[in-house]
Write a structure and sequence with these properties.
100 residues; 3-stranded antiparallel beta sheet; Glucose Oxidase, domain 1; 22% helix; elongated; 2 helices; alpha+beta
Amino acid sequence: ILTARGGSTSHAAVVARGLGLPCVAGCEAIRVDDAKRRLTVNGNVLKEMDPISIDGTTGEVFAGIIPTTAPNLAREKQLTALLSWADDIRRLEVWANADY
């Protein structure tokens, strides 16, 4: 989700987080032309349905599709050891009521 206005607490950003979707809210560099159904950013024009890739962590937006890769935690020996220790000593149980 990419918006020209808003911020990390905007409705779009909150809903995106809830859905597990990346979001960049408040990208002031984009200019949206509703009539022509396109946006312009730094002289580049993207038409409706042109693919973009969004890094919701850094706020970077890229034209086109950037392939993703799954993390390889086996290479992260210290992290793997820490998570293993945590698994060995955890006592917390989570109980929830999800009624609407």
